[in-house]
DNA sequence: TAAAGTTGTCGAAACGCTTCAATTCGGAGG
DNA sequence: CCTCCGAATTGAAGCGTTTCGACAACTTTA
């Protein structure tokens, strides 16, 4: 391994000088700087990460805590991940993968050994057992998602309540009066997952506010279940003319199910999805965007800010944006 | 931070003794051992990862190089990831996430700074520009996938050629004589991706061998394209009674497309998928399993073996396994 | 009983980097 | 001409581990 001493010798300067060239923490004459840079290039020198971490007590690594349990939609997770990694790299940080199944235990281990400078935790539940630990840890953390109490934390999330409401408003404005809601798989609700519950709540409240009849049902992620759920919704509420879907995995089967039950989209039943934009685009669905990339990016930016000692708001909510597409149309008034 | 010196002081021994208790590299009397262990527990001591890496020149971290480009099916990728991470943890290693878009550049950086002890590279192309670099790097690497030349490497892959052939054999045994092949999105083939091409090759060769007429077409991952591809296949080969699908994203729409074109599964057209077992199970498709977990696990095991100085075979091919389900049936002989 | 192991423990030297205090060296100010 | 100052550079002391050689205290063996 080529060390800083090798570079120093090659350039005819002291190791400390090389270090200062690298970090820019002291002024160095242009001649020396170029000379050192040249030696670095020639020798192919890379600072030893461990040594640096030891000397600076900064690892330049953040932990990304990934959910890998039933009900989470993996492609969406990957969107978060790429955005987070890209953003981290922009700040010269690397990303250590920690799976949620390692639990609080895993966080403690990684934090204790100073392997990482901070944590980005995804898929936080309303009442998450990792939250107390995160609060008291030396390293800062940012949560994607929103536990019951955000005091002392830094959380980023889509405003799912508004998202649910936004769907209702859009449909209500188009004249729909009976709306169904197709939610995430039931395990997600059982797990007390904030985003799912809040979307439902926002949806329900908005419906009440606008005097609209609403029915909600979870949906598992296979065709049969989706079909069953849709059939059930239609049976419960025969006048239903619109459907809000908050379930990426079910999305592909909704149109088919409706068709199988003799309903056309959007003429008989309008559909609004809450999902990443690309998915909606691909299926030509009116949708409230789930800005996974934006969330991942913002979360990482906030984490970096905290690492640099800047204070951050406990809760950042991104406003939902609705994109109109072919799956919604004004309600047809029949004779 | 609580250091090894703190523990030593607390236990009334030398720091080196604590180290030996931790690593077990020298015999320690039971009394001392328990005394030290107790102090460690009490003080909540965790060895500093950087310091350890510096002293041992081992980071106990492996890099996982993830593909995040169009055409890769993210849920499958995540399966690899979880298996790899779980296996790594079993060997007391952590996983650093490197996205493929960081390219050879990123590999060099991570390797040069001694952040990781080895590399697990996913989604390797037939002619991958990272391969030469991997060959000459100090750290060992294991590839999931199979470049053109495997000499000097360690590769793990499903035997896609046999997988393609296996589908043909299954269908031929059932009496089918005209078989279609629905492949990955065309970008995947353009990129010279080994697994896609090899599956096709195996499929084609087996069809020739068994005197079966075959037609192949790529499929993009939206309903319209799948429908178009299927229609095109049926037009090209009107007598087609079976379809092999090697495209996870298209899978959900194949049955629908066939139905839309007036064909029933499996009576008119039998379908065999090449995909993870759970997906096939869920859709009740006869399939050749894509053992993502198994591949991820094996790859990591091989990497650990190499890290411990054990030699490994350049290529490990997992044999394909076919699981019969409701989507295939003997060909109906019509009058 | 002396020599030759064993076993358990310790002290000190690495590992490769950063950073503080000290030093040198021109040039500006008196 | 001497002093003082700022800019550029250096030497050495850490950062928290591991590990090697040394050593004391026993236990065998001769």
From TrEMBL, chains A, B:
<dbReference type="Pfam" id="PF13377">
    <property type="entry name" value="Peripla_BP_3"/>
</dbReference>
<feature type="domain" description="HTH lacI-type">
    <location>
        <begin position="2"/>
        <end position="56"/>
    </location>
</feature>
<dbReference type="GO" id="GO:0003700">
    <property type="term" value="F:DNA-binding transcription factor activity"/>
</dbReference>
<dbReference type="GO" id="GO:0000976">
    <property type="term" value="F:transcription cis-regulatory region binding"/>
</dbReference>
<keyword id="KW-0238">DNA-binding</keyword>
<protein>
    <submittedName>
        <fullName>LacI family transcriptional regulator</fullName>
    </submittedName>
</protein>
<dbReference type="InterPro" id="IPR010982">
    <property type="entry name" value="Lambda_DNA-bd_dom_sf"/>
</dbReference>
<keyword id="KW-0804">Transcription</keyword>
<dbReference type="InterPro" id="IPR000843">
    <property type="entry name" value="HTH_LacI"/>
</dbReference>
<dbReference type="InterPro" id="IPR046335">
    <property type="entry name" value="LacI/GalR-like_sensor"/>
</dbReference>
<dbReference type="Pfam" id="PF00356">
    <property type="entry name" value="LacI"/>
</dbReference>
<dbReference type="InterPro" id="IPR028082">
    <property type="entry name" value="Peripla_BP_I"/>
</dbReference>
<keyword id="KW-0805">Transcription regulation</keyword>
């Amino acid at each position: 391994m080529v060390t800083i001493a090798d570079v120093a010798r090659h350039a005819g300067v002291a190791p400390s000088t090389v270090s200062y060239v690298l970090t820019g923490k002291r002024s160095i004459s242009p001649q020396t700087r170029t000379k050192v840079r040249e030696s670095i290039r020639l020798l192919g020198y890379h600072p030893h990460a461990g040594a640096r971490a030891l000397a600076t007590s900064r690892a330049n690594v953040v932990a990304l805590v990934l959910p890998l349990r039933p009900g989470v939609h993996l492609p969406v997770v990957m969107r978060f991940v790429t955005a987070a990694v890209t953003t981290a790299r922009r700040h010269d940080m690397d990303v250590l993968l920690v799976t949620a199944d390692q639990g609080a235990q895993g966080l403690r281990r990684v934090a204790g050994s100073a392997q990482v400078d901070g944590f980005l935790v995804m898929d936080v539940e309303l009442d998450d057992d990792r939250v107390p630990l995160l609060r008291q840890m030396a390293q800062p953390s940012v949560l994607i998602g929103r536990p019951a109490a955000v005091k002392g934390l830094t959380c980023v999330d889509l405003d799912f309540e508004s998202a649910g409401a936004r769907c209702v408003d859009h449909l209500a404005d188009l004249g729909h009066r009976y709306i169904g809601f197709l939610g995430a798989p039931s395990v997600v609700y059982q797990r007390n997952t904030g985003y799912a519950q809040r979307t439902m709540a926002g949806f329900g409240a908005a419906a009440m506010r606008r005097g609209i009849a609403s029915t909600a049902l979870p949906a598992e992620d296979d065709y049969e279940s989706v079909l069953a759920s849709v059939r059930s919704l239609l049976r419960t509420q025969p006048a239903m003319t619109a459907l809000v879907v908050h379930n990426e995995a079910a999305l592909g089967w909704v149109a088919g199910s409706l068709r199988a039950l003799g309903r056309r989209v959007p003429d008989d039943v309008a559909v609004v999805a809450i999902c990443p934009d690309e998915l909606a685009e691909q299926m030509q669905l009116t949708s409230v965007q789930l800005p996974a990339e934006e969330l991942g990016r913002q979360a990482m930016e906030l984490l970096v800010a905290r690492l640099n000692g800047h204070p951050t708001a406990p809760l950042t909510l991104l406003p939902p944006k609705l994109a109109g597409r072919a799956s919604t149309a004004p309600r047809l008034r029949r004779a």
